[in-house]
Protein backbone atom coordinates (compact mmCIF):
# COMPACT_ATOMS: atom_id res chain seq x y z
CA UNK A 1 0.00 0.00 0.00
CA UNK A 2 1.11 3.59 -0.67
CA UNK A 3 3.48 5.18 1.81
CA UNK A 4 2.13 8.42 3.29
CA UNK A 5 4.18 10.94 5.27
CA UNK A 6 2.46 13.47 7.49
CA UNK A 7 4.02 16.67 8.83
CA UNK A 8 2.93 17.43 12.41
CA UNK A 9 1.30 15.34 15.15
CA UNK A 10 -1.20 18.00 16.24
CA UNK A 11 -4.93 17.17 16.20
CA UNK A 12 -5.09 17.56 12.38
CA UNK A 13 -2.03 15.36 11.76
CA UNK A 14 -3.27 12.65 14.10
CA UNK A 15 -6.74 12.76 12.54
CA UNK A 16 -5.35 12.51 8.98
CA UNK A 17 -3.04 9.71 10.12
CA UNK A 18 -5.81 7.71 11.79
CA UNK A 19 -8.19 7.93 8.83
CA UNK A 20 -5.40 7.19 6.32
CA UNK A 21 -4.28 4.19 8.38
CA UNK A 22 -7.88 2.95 8.74
CA UNK A 23 -8.08 3.13 4.94
CA UNK A 24 -5.05 0.87 4.68
CA UNK A 25 -2.17 3.27 3.89
CA UNK A 26 1.28 2.96 5.45
CA UNK A 27 1.55 6.15 7.52
CA UNK A 28 4.37 7.88 9.38
CA UNK A 29 3.99 11.23 11.14
CA UNK A 30 7.03 13.46 11.62
CA UNK A 31 6.69 15.77 14.62
CA UNK A 32 9.22 18.41 15.69
CA UNK A 33 8.20 18.31 19.37
CA UNK A 34 8.66 15.41 21.80
CA UNK A 35 4.94 14.90 22.45
CA UNK A 36 1.76 14.81 20.31
CA UNK A 37 -0.96 17.48 20.39
CA UNK A 38 0.68 20.69 19.13
CA UNK A 39 -1.32 23.62 20.50
CA UNK A 40 -3.67 21.20 22.21
CA UNK A 41 -1.39 20.80 25.21
CA UNK A 42 -0.86 21.36 28.94
CA UNK A 43 2.31 21.63 30.97
CA UNK A 44 3.52 20.63 34.42
CA UNK A 45 5.34 22.97 36.81
CA UNK A 46 6.20 22.00 40.39
CA UNK A 47 3.25 19.67 40.80
CA UNK A 48 0.76 21.96 39.02
CA UNK A 49 -0.75 21.08 35.65
CA UNK A 50 -1.71 24.07 33.49
CA UNK A 51 -4.35 23.44 30.82
CA UNK A 52 -3.03 25.30 27.82
CA UNK A 53 -5.02 24.37 24.74
CA UNK A 54 -8.61 23.41 25.43
CA UNK A 55 -11.35 25.22 27.27
CA UNK A 56 -14.25 23.42 25.69
CA UNK A 57 -14.58 20.73 23.08
CA UNK A 58 -17.17 21.22 20.36
CA UNK A 59 -18.52 17.77 19.55
CA UNK A 60 -18.23 16.42 23.11
CA UNK A 61 -22.07 16.23 23.14
CA UNK A 62 -23.23 12.72 22.27
CA UNK A 63 -25.80 13.62 19.60
CA UNK A 64 -23.60 15.93 17.52
CA UNK A 65 -22.20 14.72 14.16
CA UNK A 66 -18.73 15.77 15.29
CA UNK A 67 -18.99 13.47 18.30
CA UNK A 68 -18.82 10.49 15.95
CA UNK A 69 -15.59 11.86 14.49
CA UNK A 70 -14.02 12.36 17.94
CA UNK A 71 -14.94 8.75 18.73
CA UNK A 72 -13.64 7.41 15.42
CA UNK A 73 -10.22 8.96 16.10
CA UNK A 74 -10.20 7.62 19.66
CA UNK A 75 -10.18 11.08 21.27
CA UNK A 76 -13.38 10.26 23.15
CA UNK A 77 -13.82 6.75 24.49
CA UNK A 78 -16.40 4.98 26.64
CA UNK A 79 -14.30 5.94 29.68
CA UNK A 80 -14.04 9.67 28.86
CA UNK A 81 -15.84 11.81 31.38
CA UNK A 82 -17.13 15.10 29.99
CA UNK A 83 -17.85 17.98 32.36
CA UNK A 84 -20.52 20.48 31.34
CA UNK A 85 -20.53 22.73 34.41
CA UNK A 86 -23.39 25.21 34.63
CA UNK A 87 -22.89 28.19 34.72
CA UNK A 88 -20.20 28.08 32.06
CA UNK A 89 -18.74 31.33 33.34
CA UNK A 90 -19.55 34.02 35.90
CA UNK A 91 -19.01 37.77 35.82
CA UNK A 92 -18.00 38.92 39.30
CA UNK A 93 -19.10 42.55 39.32
CA UNK A 94 -18.21 44.60 42.39
CA UNK A 95 -18.86 48.23 41.42
CA UNK A 96 -21.86 49.56 43.38
CA UNK A 97 -22.36 46.37 45.43
CA UNK A 98 -21.41 42.78 44.59
CA UNK A 99 -23.27 41.09 41.78
CA UNK A 100 -22.62 37.73 40.15
CA UNK A 101 -23.93 37.48 36.61
CA UNK A 102 -23.96 33.91 35.36
CA UNK A 103 -23.78 32.56 31.85
CA UNK A 104 -25.99 29.51 32.29
CA UNK A 105 -26.09 26.77 29.68
CA UNK A 106 -29.78 26.29 30.56
CA UNK A 107 -31.43 28.93 28.34
CA UNK A 108 -34.61 29.36 30.42
CA UNK A 109 -32.50 29.87 33.55
CA UNK A 110 -30.23 32.28 31.66
CA UNK A 111 -33.16 34.37 30.46
CA UNK A 112 -34.77 34.63 33.92
CA UNK A 113 -31.45 35.39 35.57
CA UNK A 114 -30.30 38.07 33.11
CA UNK A 115 -33.74 39.76 33.09
CA UNK A 116 -33.61 39.91 36.90
CA UNK A 117 -30.10 41.43 36.76
CA UNK A 118 -31.12 44.03 34.21
CA UNK A 119 -34.88 44.43 33.64
CA UNK A 120 -34.25 47.25 31.18
CA UNK A 121 -32.36 44.83 28.91
CA UNK A 122 -35.31 42.39 28.80
CA UNK A 123 -36.10 42.71 25.03
CA UNK A 124 -32.44 42.21 24.08
CA UNK A 125 -32.03 39.29 26.52
CA UNK A 126 -35.14 37.59 25.10
CA UNK A 127 -33.84 38.05 21.56
CA UNK A 128 -30.45 36.60 22.54
CA UNK A 129 -32.10 33.58 24.17
CA UNK A 130 -34.34 32.99 21.14
CA UNK A 131 -31.21 32.97 18.98
CA UNK A 132 -29.43 30.58 21.33
CA UNK A 133 -32.40 28.17 21.08
CA UNK A 134 -32.27 28.36 17.27
CA UNK A 135 -28.61 27.38 17.42
CA UNK A 136 -29.06 24.35 19.70
CA UNK A 137 -29.49 22.11 16.63
CA UNK A 138 -26.62 23.82 14.82
CA UNK A 139 -23.40 21.85 14.43
CA UNK A 140 -20.18 22.02 12.52
CA UNK A 141 -20.61 20.38 9.13
CA UNK A 142 -19.03 16.95 8.84
CA UNK A 143 -19.38 16.05 5.16
CA UNK A 144 -17.91 13.58 2.73
CA UNK A 145 -16.20 14.82 -0.42
CA UNK A 146 -17.86 14.00 -3.73
CA UNK A 147 -17.20 10.71 -5.54
CA UNK A 148 -15.73 9.05 -2.44
CA UNK A 149 -16.01 5.33 -1.85
CA UNK A 150 -16.69 5.03 1.86
CA UNK A 151 -17.66 2.42 4.44
CA UNK A 152 -19.77 4.76 6.61
CA UNK A 153 -21.50 7.80 5.12
CA UNK A 154 -21.37 11.21 6.83
CA UNK A 155 -24.60 12.50 8.42
CA UNK A 156 -27.31 13.05 5.84
CA UNK A 157 -29.25 16.06 4.66
CA UNK A 158 -31.67 15.63 7.61
CA UNK A 159 -29.00 16.96 9.96
CA UNK A 160 -28.59 19.97 7.71
CA UNK A 161 -32.36 20.53 7.56
CA UNK A 162 -32.54 20.57 11.38
CA UNK A 163 -30.21 23.55 11.25
CA UNK A 164 -32.55 25.63 9.09
CA UNK A 165 -33.86 27.96 11.88
CA UNK A 166 -30.24 28.84 12.68
CA UNK A 167 -29.22 29.18 9.04
CA UNK A 168 -31.80 31.95 8.55
CA UNK A 169 -30.06 34.00 11.27
CA UNK A 170 -26.57 33.63 9.84
CA UNK A 171 -26.51 36.81 7.75
CA UNK A 172 -27.87 39.24 10.38
CA UNK A 173 -25.67 37.80 13.13
CA UNK A 174 -22.57 37.88 10.93
CA UNK A 175 -22.94 41.62 10.38
CA UNK A 176 -22.04 42.64 13.94
CA UNK A 177 -18.92 42.09 16.05
CA UNK A 178 -19.36 40.67 19.55
CA UNK A 179 -18.14 44.00 20.95
CA UNK A 180 -20.81 45.95 19.02
CA UNK A 181 -23.50 43.40 19.88
CA UNK A 182 -22.65 43.50 23.60
CA UNK A 183 -22.67 47.32 23.51
CA UNK A 184 -26.44 47.17 22.86
CA UNK A 185 -26.94 45.87 26.42
CA UNK A 186 -27.33 48.55 29.07
CA UNK A 187 -25.91 46.62 32.01
CA UNK A 188 -22.08 46.76 32.06
CA UNK A 189 -21.79 43.33 33.73
CA UNK A 190 -23.80 41.70 30.93
CA UNK A 191 -21.63 43.49 28.39
CA UNK A 192 -18.49 42.15 30.07
CA UNK A 193 -19.96 38.65 30.35
CA UNK A 194 -20.84 38.52 26.64
CA UNK A 195 -17.40 39.73 25.56
CA UNK A 196 -15.61 37.19 27.74
CA UNK A 197 -16.83 33.98 26.06
CA UNK A 198 -14.91 34.19 22.79
CA UNK A 199 -12.59 36.80 21.34
CA UNK A 200 -14.88 39.88 21.02
CA UNK A 201 -13.54 40.69 17.54
CA UNK A 202 -15.40 37.64 16.20
CA UNK A 203 -18.82 38.22 14.66
CA UNK A 204 -21.95 37.64 16.75
CA UNK A 205 -22.73 34.48 14.80
CA UNK A 206 -19.68 32.86 16.40
CA UNK A 207 -20.85 33.93 19.87
CA UNK A 208 -24.44 32.71 19.42
CA UNK A 209 -23.25 29.44 17.84
CA UNK A 210 -20.97 28.91 20.85
CA UNK A 211 -23.81 29.64 23.30
CA UNK A 212 -26.08 27.30 21.30
CA UNK A 213 -23.41 24.63 21.58
CA UNK A 214 -23.31 25.07 25.38
CA UNK A 215 -27.12 25.03 25.58
CA UNK A 216 -27.17 21.74 23.64
CA UNK A 217 -25.03 20.10 26.34
CA UNK A 218 -22.11 20.19 23.92
CA UNK A 219 -18.85 22.13 24.44
CA UNK A 220 -17.82 20.20 27.55
CA UNK A 221 -14.38 19.89 29.07
CA UNK A 222 -13.04 16.37 28.91
CA UNK A 223 -11.43 14.94 32.00
CA UNK A 224 -7.66 15.36 31.66
CA UNK A 225 -8.13 18.02 28.96
CA UNK A 226 -5.69 18.62 26.12
CA UNK A 227 -3.10 16.04 27.12
CA UNK A 228 -5.63 13.22 27.31
CA UNK A 229 -7.29 14.22 24.02
CA UNK A 230 -3.96 14.20 22.16
CA UNK A 231 -2.61 11.10 23.91
CA UNK A 232 -5.83 9.16 23.14
CA UNK A 233 -5.50 10.01 19.45
CA UNK A 234 -1.78 9.14 19.33
CA UNK A 235 -2.57 5.84 21.05
CA UNK A 236 -5.33 5.11 18.53
CA UNK A 237 -3.00 5.90 15.60
CA UNK A 238 -0.20 3.70 16.92
CA UNK A 239 -2.59 0.88 17.76
CA UNK A 240 -3.65 0.93 14.09
CA UNK A 241 -0.01 0.42 13.10
CA UNK A 242 0.94 4.04 12.36
CA UNK A 243 4.32 5.44 13.39
CA UNK A 244 5.16 8.79 14.97
CA UNK A 245 8.74 10.05 14.79
CA UNK A 246 9.22 12.69 17.47
CA UNK A 247 11.94 15.36 17.52
CA UNK A 248 11.95 15.43 13.69
CA UNK A 249 11.53 18.88 12.20
CA UNK A 250 10.55 18.77 8.54
CA UNK A 251 12.54 21.30 6.51
CA UNK A 252 10.89 20.97 3.13
CA UNK A 253 8.25 19.05 1.23
CA UNK A 254 9.81 17.86 -2.03
CA UNK A 255 7.89 18.58 -5.21
CA UNK A 256 9.07 16.85 -8.38
CA UNK A 257 7.28 17.08 -11.74
CA UNK A 258 4.22 18.61 -10.06
CA UNK A 259 3.91 15.93 -7.36
CA UNK A 260 4.87 15.68 -3.70
CA UNK A 261 7.56 12.99 -3.51
CA UNK A 262 8.94 13.18 0.00
CA UNK A 263 10.14 15.20 2.96
CA UNK A 264 13.52 16.66 3.82
CA UNK A 265 14.50 16.18 7.46
CA UNK A 266 17.98 17.01 8.77
CA UNK A 267 19.17 17.37 5.18
CA UNK A 268 18.05 13.82 4.36
CA UNK A 269 15.30 12.97 1.88
CA UNK A 270 12.57 10.57 2.94
CA UNK A 271 10.59 9.38 -0.10
CA UNK A 272 6.80 9.18 -0.04
CA UNK A 273 3.91 8.38 -2.35
CA UNK A 274 1.99 11.32 -0.88
CA UNK A 275 2.40 13.95 1.86
CA UNK A 276 -0.14 15.56 4.17
CA UNK A 277 0.95 18.87 5.67
CA UNK A 278 -0.68 19.39 9.06
CA UNK A 279 1.38 22.22 10.49
CA UNK A 280 -0.07 25.74 10.44
CA UNK A 281 -0.97 26.12 6.74
CA UNK A 282 -0.23 29.84 6.80
CA UNK A 283 3.36 29.16 7.86
CA UNK A 284 3.70 26.02 5.72
CA UNK A 285 2.83 27.54 2.33
CA UNK A 286 5.82 29.87 2.65
CA UNK A 287 8.36 27.88 4.66
CA UNK A 288 7.93 24.23 3.64
CA UNK A 289 7.85 24.74 -0.13
CA UNK A 290 10.46 25.97 -2.54
CA UNK A 291 9.09 28.03 -4.27
CA UNK A 292 6.27 28.99 -1.84
CA UNK A 293 2.75 27.94 -2.82
CA UNK A 294 1.14 30.66 -4.91
CA UNK A 295 -2.23 29.11 -5.73
CA UNK A 296 -5.27 31.36 -5.36
CA UNK A 297 -6.43 29.78 -2.08
CA UNK A 298 -2.98 30.28 -0.49
CA UNK A 299 -2.92 33.92 -1.62
CA UNK A 300 -6.41 34.39 -0.18
CA UNK A 301 -5.31 32.89 3.12
CA UNK A 302 -2.38 35.29 3.35
CA UNK A 303 -4.61 38.30 2.55
CA UNK A 304 -7.34 37.26 5.01
CA UNK A 305 -5.02 36.46 7.89
CA UNK A 306 -2.45 39.23 7.52
CA UNK A 307 -5.00 41.99 8.10
CA UNK A 308 -4.87 43.63 11.54
CA UNK A 309 -6.53 41.68 14.32
CA UNK A 310 -7.27 38.55 12.24
CA UNK A 311 -4.82 36.25 13.97
CA UNK A 312 -5.77 34.94 17.40
CA UNK A 313 -2.76 34.83 19.67
CA UNK A 314 -2.25 35.45 23.34
CA UNK A 315 -0.05 35.89 26.33
CA UNK A 316 -0.96 32.98 28.58
CA UNK A 317 -0.43 33.35 32.32
CA UNK A 318 -0.44 30.35 34.62
CA UNK A 319 -0.22 30.58 38.39
CA UNK A 320 -0.11 27.82 41.00
CA UNK A 321 -1.40 28.85 44.44
CA UNK A 322 -1.30 27.06 47.77
CA UNK A 323 -4.97 27.79 48.39
CA UNK A 324 -8.06 25.66 47.92
CA UNK A 325 -10.38 27.63 45.64
CA UNK A 326 -12.67 24.71 44.83
CA UNK A 327 -15.72 26.45 46.31
CA UNK A 328 -15.54 29.07 43.54
CA UNK A 329 -16.92 28.85 39.98
CA UNK A 330 -14.39 27.38 37.54
CA UNK A 331 -14.46 30.33 35.18
CA UNK A 332 -14.69 33.95 36.31
CA UNK A 333 -14.46 37.31 34.58
CA UNK A 334 -14.20 40.67 36.34
CA UNK A 335 -13.59 44.33 35.50
CA UNK A 336 -10.32 45.88 36.61
CA UNK A 337 -10.46 48.66 39.16
CA UNK A 338 -7.15 49.88 37.77
CA UNK A 339 -6.85 49.06 34.04
CA UNK A 340 -3.29 48.57 32.82
CA UNK A 341 -1.50 48.74 29.52
CA UNK A 342 -0.03 45.66 27.87
CA UNK A 343 1.58 45.57 24.42
CA UNK A 344 -0.12 48.81 23.39
CA UNK A 345 -3.60 47.78 24.59
CA UNK A 346 -5.47 48.86 27.68
CA UNK A 347 -6.66 45.83 29.63
CA UNK A 348 -9.93 46.68 31.39
CA UNK A 349 -11.03 43.24 32.56
CA UNK A 350 -9.63 39.78 33.20
CA UNK A 351 -11.05 36.29 32.79
CA UNK A 352 -9.51 33.36 34.61
CA UNK A 353 -10.03 29.63 34.87
CA UNK A 354 -9.54 27.61 38.03
CA UNK A 355 -8.37 24.00 38.20
CA UNK A 356 -8.34 22.16 41.48
CA UNK A 357 -6.11 19.80 43.41
CA UNK A 358 -9.05 17.42 43.81
CA UNK A 359 -9.08 16.94 40.00
CA UNK A 360 -5.32 16.39 39.80
CA UNK A 361 -4.33 19.84 38.52
CA UNK A 362 -2.49 20.89 41.68
CA UNK A 363 -1.14 19.41 44.91
CA UNK A 364 -3.86 18.58 47.46
CA UNK A 365 -5.55 21.72 48.81
CA UNK A 366 -3.99 23.90 46.09
CA UNK A 367 -5.28 25.37 42.81
CA UNK A 368 -4.04 26.21 39.33
CA UNK A 369 -5.13 29.49 37.73
CA UNK A 370 -4.82 30.32 34.02
CA UNK A 371 -5.55 33.56 32.17
CA UNK A 372 -5.40 34.62 28.55
CA UNK A 373 -4.52 38.15 27.50
CA UNK A 374 -5.67 38.12 23.89
CA UNK A 375 -4.40 40.44 21.18
CA UNK A 376 -1.57 40.62 18.67
CA UNK A 377 1.40 41.03 21.00
CA UNK A 378 3.89 39.19 18.76
CA UNK A 379 5.77 42.36 17.67
CA UNK A 380 5.87 43.64 21.24
CA UNK A 381 7.36 40.46 22.69
CA UNK A 382 9.80 40.11 19.82
CA UNK A 383 11.09 43.65 20.34
CA UNK A 384 11.37 43.19 24.09
CA UNK A 385 13.31 39.97 23.61
CA UNK A 386 15.68 41.59 21.13
CA UNK A 387 16.30 44.35 23.66
CA UNK A 388 16.99 41.88 26.47
CA UNK A 389 13.81 42.73 28.42
CA UNK A 390 11.78 39.58 27.72
CA UNK A 391 11.92 38.08 31.22
CA UNK A 392 11.52 41.47 32.88
CA UNK A 393 8.37 42.17 30.82
CA UNK A 394 6.96 38.73 31.63
CA UNK A 395 7.43 39.41 35.34
CA UNK A 396 5.85 42.84 34.97
CA UNK A 397 2.75 41.32 33.29
CA UNK A 398 2.52 38.59 35.93
CA UNK A 399 2.77 41.15 38.76
CA UNK A 400 0.06 43.37 37.25
CA UNK A 401 -2.24 40.39 36.96
CA UNK A 402 -1.41 39.07 40.40
CA UNK A 403 -2.17 42.46 41.97
CA UNK A 404 -5.62 42.44 40.32
CA UNK A 405 -6.27 38.81 41.24
CA UNK A 406 -5.30 39.29 44.88
CA UNK A 407 -7.99 41.94 45.23
CA UNK A 408 -10.51 39.54 43.74
CA UNK A 409 -9.22 36.47 45.57
CA UNK A 410 -7.67 37.58 48.89
CA UNK A 411 -7.14 33.87 49.75
CA UNK A 412 -4.21 33.72 47.31
CA UNK A 413 -2.23 36.58 48.89
CA UNK A 414 1.30 35.37 49.60
CA UNK A 415 0.38 31.85 48.37
CA UNK A 416 1.93 31.78 44.89
CA UNK A 417 4.02 28.63 44.49
CA UNK A 418 4.79 28.92 40.77
CA UNK A 419 4.03 31.20 37.83
CA UNK A 420 4.75 31.27 34.14
CA UNK A 421 4.00 33.48 31.14
CA UNK A 422 3.85 31.94 27.66
CA UNK A 423 3.92 34.48 24.84
CA UNK A 424 3.22 34.19 21.10
CA UNK A 425 6.98 33.57 20.77
CA UNK A 426 6.55 30.51 23.00
CA UNK A 427 3.76 29.14 20.76
CA UNK A 428 5.81 29.91 17.67
CA UNK A 429 8.81 28.05 19.10
CA UNK A 430 6.90 24.97 20.26
CA UNK A 431 4.26 24.63 17.54
CA UNK A 432 5.75 26.42 14.54
CA UNK A 433 2.56 28.44 14.02
CA UNK A 434 2.68 31.79 12.23
CA UNK A 435 3.51 34.44 14.88
CA UNK A 436 2.37 31.95 17.51
CA UNK A 437 -1.24 32.30 16.37
CA UNK A 438 -3.57 29.36 17.03
CA UNK A 439 -6.79 30.41 15.30
CA UNK A 440 -8.12 32.99 12.81
CA UNK A 441 -10.93 35.44 13.50
CA UNK A 442 -13.82 35.89 11.08
CA UNK A 443 -14.54 39.58 11.61
CA UNK A 444 -18.07 40.97 11.38
CA UNK A 445 -19.36 41.53 7.87
CA UNK A 446 -16.86 39.21 6.18
CA UNK A 447 -17.50 35.87 4.53
CA UNK A 448 -16.34 32.66 6.17
CA UNK A 449 -13.63 31.15 4.00
CA UNK A 450 -13.05 27.41 3.61
CA UNK A 451 -9.72 26.47 2.04
CA UNK A 452 -9.23 23.32 -0.05
CA UNK A 453 -7.38 20.43 1.58
CA UNK A 454 -5.94 19.56 -1.83
CA UNK A 455 -4.00 22.01 -4.01
CA UNK A 456 -5.01 22.35 -7.65
CA UNK A 457 -1.63 22.11 -9.34
CA UNK A 458 0.45 19.83 -7.10
CA UNK A 459 -0.43 16.15 -7.01
CA UNK A 460 -0.20 13.79 -4.03
CA UNK A 461 -0.18 16.70 -1.61
CA UNK A 462 -2.83 17.52 1.00
CA UNK A 463 -3.30 20.07 3.78
CA UNK A 464 -5.16 19.94 7.09
CA UNK A 465 -5.31 22.09 10.21
CA UNK A 466 -7.11 24.74 12.22
CA UNK A 467 -6.45 27.42 9.62
CA UNK A 468 -8.38 25.61 6.87
CA UNK A 469 -11.97 26.19 7.99
CA UNK A 470 -13.83 28.51 10.34
CA UNK A 471 -14.07 28.85 13.26
CA UNK A 472 -10.80 26.91 13.64
CA UNK A 473 -9.68 25.21 16.85
CA UNK A 474 -9.67 21.46 17.44
CA UNK A 475 -12.93 20.81 15.49
CA UNK A 476 -11.49 22.34 12.30
CA UNK A 477 -8.27 20.40 12.87
CA UNK A 478 -10.00 17.01 13.26
CA UNK A 479 -12.46 17.61 10.40
CA UNK A 480 -9.85 18.79 7.88
CA UNK A 481 -7.59 15.86 8.83
CA UNK A 482 -10.49 13.57 7.89
CA UNK A 483 -11.13 15.50 4.66
CA UNK A 484 -7.45 15.33 3.63
CA UNK A 485 -7.54 11.55 4.13
CA UNK A 486 -10.70 11.39 1.99
CA UNK A 487 -8.95 13.17 -0.92
CA UNK A 488 -6.04 10.78 -0.49
CA UNK A 489 -8.41 7.78 -0.74
CA UNK A 490 -10.19 9.18 -3.78
CA UNK A 491 -6.90 9.92 -5.59
CA UNK A 492 -5.53 6.43 -4.88
CA UNK A 493 -8.85 4.68 -5.62
CA UNK A 494 -9.15 3.37 -2.07
CA UNK A 495 -12.28 2.94 0.08
CA UNK A 496 -12.27 5.48 2.94
CA UNK A 497 -12.28 3.43 6.14
C1 LIG B 1 -4.66 28.95 25.04
C2 LIG B 1 -5.43 28.20 24.01
C3 LIG B 1 -6.75 27.87 24.24
C4 LIG B 1 -7.47 27.16 23.28
N1 LIG B 1 -8.76 26.81 23.55
C5 LIG B 1 -9.42 26.01 22.66
C6 LIG B 1 -10.70 25.49 22.98
O1 LIG B 1 -11.25 25.73 24.04
N2 LIG B 1 -11.31 24.69 22.06
C7 LIG B 1 -10.73 24.38 20.86
O2 LIG B 1 -11.31 23.64 20.07
N3 LIG B 1 -9.52 24.87 20.52
C8 LIG B 1 -8.84 25.67 21.40
N4 LIG B 1 -7.61 26.14 21.10
C9 LIG B 1 -7.10 25.99 19.73
C10 LIG B 1 -6.59 24.60 19.42
O3 LIG B 1 -5.77 24.11 20.46
C11 LIG B 1 -5.79 24.63 18.11
O4 LIG B 1 -6.44 25.42 17.14
C12 LIG B 1 -5.64 23.21 17.54
O5 LIG B 1 -5.07 22.36 18.51
C13 LIG B 1 -4.76 23.27 16.29
O6 LIG B 1 -4.48 21.97 15.84
P1 LIG B 1 -3.68 21.70 14.50
O7 LIG B 1 -3.44 20.26 14.42
O8 LIG B 1 -4.38 22.35 13.35
O9 LIG B 1 -2.31 22.50 14.60
P2 LIG B 1 -1.14 22.52 15.67
O10 LIG B 1 -1.65 22.35 17.02
O11 LIG B 1 -0.39 23.78 15.37
O12 LIG B 1 -0.24 21.26 15.30
C14 LIG B 1 0.81 21.31 14.38
C15 LIG B 1 1.86 20.30 14.80
O13 LIG B 1 2.92 20.34 13.83
C16 LIG B 1 4.18 20.37 14.49
N5 LIG B 1 5.12 21.03 13.58
C17 LIG B 1 5.16 22.34 13.23
N6 LIG B 1 6.13 22.56 12.33
C18 LIG B 1 6.70 21.36 12.09
C19 LIG B 1 7.74 20.92 11.23
N7 LIG B 1 8.40 21.77 10.41
N8 LIG B 1 8.09 19.61 11.24
C20 LIG B 1 7.45 18.71 12.04
N9 LIG B 1 6.45 19.07 12.87
C21 LIG B 1 6.08 20.38 12.89
C22 LIG B 1 3.90 21.13 15.77
O14 LIG B 1 4.87 20.86 16.75
C23 LIG B 1 2.51 20.63 16.13
O15 LIG B 1 2.57 19.46 16.90
C24 LIG B 1 -6.85 26.81 22.05
C25 LIG B 1 -5.51 27.11 21.84
C26 LIG B 1 -4.79 27.79 22.80
C27 LIG B 1 -3.34 28.06 22.57
Largest sheet: 7 strands, mixed
Apparent shape: globular
Task: Report strand order across the widest sheet.
Answer: 7-6-16-17-18-15-19
- Uncertain stretches of 5 or more adjacent residues: none
Structural class: alpha/beta
**What ligands are attached or bound here?**
flavin-adenine dinucleotide
* Rg on CA atoms, Å: 23 Å
Mean pLDDT figure: 95
Number of helices: 17
Determine the fraction of residues in helical runs and give it as a percent range. Answer: 25-40%
Distance between the termini: 14 Å
Q: How much strand?
A: 15-25%
β-strand number: 21
How would you characterize the overall build of this protein?
With 497 residues, the protein is of the alpha/beta class. Helices cover 34% and strands 22% of the residues. The chain contains 17 helices and 21 strands. The longest helix is centred in the C-terminal third of the chain and has 20 residues, at 473-492. The radius of gyration is 23 Å and the shape is globular. Flavin-adenine dinucleotide binds next to helix 1, strand 15 and helix 17.
Quick summary of this structure?
This protein has 497 residues and is of the alpha/beta class.
Layout of helices and strands:
Layout: E1 3-7, H1 11-22, E2 26-30, E3 42-45, E4 48-51, H2 65-72, E5 82-83, E6 89-93, E7 99-103, H3 107-117, H4 122-134, H5 157-162, H6 164-167, H7 170-174, H8 178-182, H9 188-194, H10 204-215, E8 221-222, H11 225-239, E9 243-245, E10 250-256, E11 259-265, E12 268-271, E13 274-277, H12 281-287, H13 296-305, E14 311-312, E15 314-321, E16 331-342, E17 345-356, E18 367-374, H14 378-386, H15 390-408, E19 416-422, H16 424-431, E20 439-440, E21 461-463, H17 473-492
Parallel strand pairs: 1-2, 1-13, 2-9, 6-16, 13-21
Antiparallel strand pairs: 3-4, 5-8, 6-7, 10-11, 11-12, 14-20, 15-18, 15-19, 16-17, 17-18
The structure holds flavin-adenine dinucleotide (FAD).
